[in-house]
Amino acid sequence: MIGRRGFLASLAVLFAATLAAVLYFFLRSRGGGAGRSAGASPASGGGLAVGSEPSGAGGASAGGGLPVGNGAPAGRAPDSRTVSNLMAAYDRSLALEVKRLAFAAVADAEGFRDIATLFRAAARADAIHAALFTERLAAAGTPSGGGRTAAAPPSGLGAAARIAGCPEVQPQPTGGADAAPPPRTPGNLRSCIEENIRLHDTVYADFLKTAREERDKAAVEAFNYARTVAGELASLFSKALENPDAWKAGGRTFYVCSVCGRVQTGLKGTQCTLCFADNSKFVAVR
Length: 286
Fold this sequence. Notes:
globular; about 5% strand; 3-stranded antiparallel β-sheet; Ferritin
């Protein structure tokens, strides 16, 4: 009887030892692979978790989870459609700034001094929008425009034409020694009207829709400012085109909000009605 009990006890000990060994190797194998699995912490297996960054590489944890790469706001990848749209809008704003400065040079040369002032005010608005898009891109951890800087005023009509790539400001052959070339400024106004309507109705409208879908409130604000100003500038350009000769005298002043880029013919109330910045943020363009 004692021998039978001893045999059963030895069998139980052997079974327990075997089970312990199996559990040991099983747990060890899982622990070694944890560091290579998606979502695991670097400490669990000595490796980096998929989607995470080394310590000190930047990027804060979102809700205690994995850090978002490149410092992008939580919930939006740095390569989202909104980021691409911000980069496109940045490039477009810089191009428009140069183009309108070129148009201003033409208008000045042709004697349309107030239209030249309007073009310069529009160029300043474009520069403000480029800065807005730069800020939004920086918040997403994306460098804007590949390090390009804001446009510089063109030095000379020919240089302005080449930089802007505008056929409207290229020299035109005259009909003879005494024939004056037709003014280019009305055509430049029409070009700006068409472009601003397209920006308002299509380009920025589509950018706004995407930013809302991706819940990027900062980008929504920037695109809304640019879209609103594009529509208002189209109206100002249209008013100038109705009677360009009435815009030759000079002396008109336009006020540009340095926060949102709104262009006004005068100061109204105590603040900008688009971004609600104080009137002290308006810059006079004469």
